[in-house]
Amino acid sequence: MINGFFDRQSLDVEDAVRIGRSSDIRVFVGIRLPQVLAGLTATAVFGWVPTWNEFLFALLPPGVETRTVPVTMLQTIGGNIGVR
Questions:
Q1: Domains in the chain, number
Q2: Is 82 inside any structural domain?
Q3: pTM for this entry
Q4: Range with lowest mean pLDDT among 6-10, 64-68, 75-79
Q5: For residue 17, what are the contacts with CB-CB under 8 A and spacing of at least 6?
Q6: Alpha-helix runs per DSSP H in 60-81
Q7: Range of the domain at 46
Q8: Is 83 inside any structural domain?
């Protein structure tokens, strides 16, 4: 998904900055990263939503015997969101 955002960028600006002898890291952080920030955000949301839904699904079954590893880890570190 994120590859599409990088592929749509124009390389003209990047080439102009490289002529000014900027390093690869400077070009990436200063030019490419700000241009794909919306794509990074969208990719993060699309990755986070299924993870959160899976966690809530694992949280719903009643009983101690049916707890999954993420729910057990949450209870071990002190988080309590209604699971006994």
A1: 1
A2: no
A3: 0.57
A4: 64-68
A5: 26, 27, 30, 31
A6: 69-76
A7: 2-76
A8: no
